[in-house]
DNA sequence: TCTCACACCTTTGAAGTGG
DNA sequence: CCACTTCAAAGGTGTGAGA
C-alpha cells in the first residue's frame, strides 16, 4: 500500500535556498509523500517550524484490513524464514537476537488500566511511569544505539468525560517528531545487557518552539512510545544500520496539561518519589486536605451522610507505595532494579506457564511487594506466541479506558531494517513499512549524494534545541538521526507483528506515519565531532570547547535562587549543626561550584564492574518467555558495505571511544567524510544566524 | 484547557569533619 | 587520605488560582 500523494498537502520548503537545488525534491515527491514541515528562518535568524498538516485520512476500515492482511502475510513469511534463515554478510559470531523486556511494566499496566495520562508542560516533564527496558540477546561485543520516540497512537483528540476518555474529534496537526537517544549510546551489547536501560530523562512538552529537544506532544492526544535498538558502533552509521523497533502496548498514554483522572493523579502521587509531598502520609498539602476531608467525613457521618468513595489508597497500598518509591529514580535504581532482577530471576526460571490476564488486575491491589513481583513475573511469563496469535486474531481494539478489555501484552518486536531491497520490492513489506512510518525509499535519500537539503531540514531541528550542540555535531546527528527515524523499511520479525500494536502506532484511521516529521532531537544529547554522544550538560561544554565560543549560561538552568525558595534551610534539615563545624557561607562555596552540577551520564562501565550493574552478568539471559524476540533478516546493503570497509563493526575497545584516532578511523569512509564536510559548510550559515540571535 | 507560582520533595555533589 | 556527614542548589512533582 502506498499513500496517494496529495499536492499541497504539506508545505515543503527548502530550508536554505542556496541548497534547494541540491535537493531532489521532484524525485522525492514522486515516490512518497513529504515528511518535513516547512521550516524557515525568521527575521531574527531563529528557526520557525510550522506545524505540519496531515495527510487526508484513509479509510480506517481499509487500513485495518490491509494491516491485518499484511501482518498475516508477514507472519507467514517470517515463519518460512525461520525454516531457512537468510544468509547475510553478518558472520555467525556477530549475530544477535535482541529481546527487550519492559522493566516497569507493572507500573505501566497499573496506569494503563485507567488510561495513562502524561502531563506535558512548556518547561518539559518527565514520563512517569518511566520507560525502563532490559535488553538481552544482544551481541556482547557489538555496539548498539538505543533510541526512543513517541508517536501518535491514533488520529483522534480525546476528552475526559464522565470519568472516561472519549474521542472528541479529529486530532490536531502533529508536532515535529523527535527521537531520544539514550545518553549511553553507543555501548556494547554487554554493557546494555548488564543494566536496565532507563529513559527517564526523556521530557515531554507541548511547546512547539521548544529548544531543548524535548519531545513535543499535543495535549489530549494519545501516544505510543517506541523503543529502538540500532546495531551501530557509531552514531554516523545509524542510517545504515539494522535496527529494531519494540512497541509495548501498555505504554500508551494520553498527553494532558492537567490531570483529568483523579485515579491517575493518586497513582502518580503514590508511586513517584518526587510527588511524595502529596502523599497522605507526607506533610504536604494533601495531608491537610485529607485532614479536612476526614473532618468533613466525620461531620457527614455524624450527620448521617456518607461519601461515595472511600479513599483510594489503603494502608496496605501505602506499604506498596513505599516499595515502589525507590523504583523510580536513578540514584537508587541500580539497587532497586538489582533486587527486582533477583526477584525476577528467582521466579522467571520457574514460571513458564501462561497465566490468565486477570493476574494483572490482581496484583494492582496487592500491598505486598513480593506478591506484586511474583504476580508480575507470572504475567511476564506469558507465551509470546500466544500473544501474537491473540494480536492477529483478536481484532483491533481501540478502547482505552478503565474498562479497557484489551490488557494485551504485545511484546512482539517490530523489526525495522534498512534493507534497501525491501524498499523497492516486496509489496507486503512496503505495505507494512508504510504503515509504520518508514518510507520505502528513504534509503535512497540517504545515499543520494545530493540529498543534503533534507538533512539540513533536520539539522534545523537539531540546532534549534541546541545552544548545546556544536554545529558539526548537531549536523552530523541531525541528518543521521533523522535518517534513522525515517529510515528503512519495516519488516517483521519472525514472530510477526501484533496487529493492534501496528494499528496503534500507525493510526487505525489510516494515518500513515510517513507524515510524521521525524527529527532526531535527542533532548539535549549531542554528538561529539567524533561520534560520541553526551548528555547536554556535557555537550554544552563540548560545544563551547570545540567551537571556542563564549560560554553562556545554559538556558535550562536557573540563573539564581528562585524567589519561591525558602531562603532559610528548613529547620528539620539543620536541627543539629555541630558547633564545632565551621559555618559555611554560600559565598565561600559558590565560586567553586562548576557551571553544571550534573553528574556525567557515564558510559556504562559495567563491564568488569559488577557493582555498577543492575544485575550480574549471569542474569542477562534469564528473561521471561514473553519478552520479545525477533530475527534479523538482513542488514542494509549500505551497512554491510560500511562494515566491510575496514571500520570495526565490533568495536569493543571502548577506551578509544571518542578519541581522535578512533574518530578518524571511523570516518575513514570517504563518503562519510564528504557528507560531513558538505554539511559542515552548509551549517555554518545556521550557526551564524544562531549566534546573532543569541547575542541580540 | 492551559499557565504559572508555589510548597514539598528527591537528587546531587562539594565542603566539612574526624579518625 | 578516606569515609562519612552536612547542606544547599538543582530540579521533579502535583496543586490551585487565574486567565
TrEMBL record:
Sequence ranges assigned to domain T-box in this UniProt record: 102-280
Keywords (A to Z) from UniProt: DNA-binding, Nucleus, Transcription, Transcription regulation
InterPro entries: p53-like_TF_DNA-bd_sf, T-box_DNA-bd, T-box_sf, TBX2_3_RD, TF_T-box, TF_T-box_CS
Keyword Transcription in record: yes
Biased composition (Polar residues): 73-82, 323-351
Primary location recorded for the protein, binned into one broad class: nucleus
Stretches the record annotates as Disordered: 73-96, 275-390, 552-603
Alphabetized SUPFAM superfamilies for the sequence: p53-like transcription factors
Amino acid composition bias (Basic and acidic residues), ranges on this chain: 363-388
Coiled coil regions, renumbered to chain: none
Cellular localization per UniProt: Nucleus
A Pfam family: T-box
Biased composition (Basic residues): 555-592
Protein name: T-box transcription factor TBX3 isoform X1
Source species of the chain: Salmo salar
Name of the coding gene: LOC106584937
